[in-house]
Structure formats: C-alpha cells, structure tokens
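Deliverable D5.2: sample structural annotation.
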Amino acid sequence: MSQAPQSVPDLPPQPPTAPRPGASPYEWKTYRRATRDYARSQRRANRGYGPWGSGLLFAILLILVGVYYLLRNTGALPWFPDDVFWPLLLVIFGLVVLARRAGY
C-alpha cells in the first residue's frame, strides 16, 4: 500500500480578538491566555519545517567540523590554532540558535 505524503499541519484558528474597552480583569486574563495558546500552537505547527528543520543545522555543523579537520590535517590551516576553533564554533552555534528562536 502506498501512503499519502505527509503535509504541513493545518494552521490553528485565527488569533483571539481583544476585549472591549472597560472589560473585566477576567476577560483580559482569558484574552492573554488565548493569545499565549495561539502563539504556542503557531510555533508547534511550524516546528520541523522550513530551511532549518529536520536537523539541517546539525548536518551543516558536522560538515564544517569535517572540512576544518581535513584542511588542518593537510596543512592548509597551520595559522588557525585549535584552541580558537571550538569556542568560536560554540559562539556561532549559539548565535544561530538565538536568531532562530527570535524568528530570524
């Protein structure tokens, strides 16, 4: 039997509408909770899709490490010390993760 290809999950409903002016604190609390739930459902719906989904970032990181050690072992990078590489790689990886969480 052939299975249908997996598609992008359905988008959640529209964001909640803001309460009317002079609404009670309970209405505002309910609105904030619904807005938070909507934002979470948006993040969950988009998880794993796009250019960085499915471990692409990890694959690129492994390729970069492999290329670095290949160039280092062939003598093409004698001027680039090993003690600078790992902290630099961790900083770049951290910046990418932060930018990804911020939506860039």
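Annotation notes: The first helix runs from residue 25 to 46. The chain has a mean pLDDT of 76.
The annotation will be released with the project's public dataset once the embargo ends.
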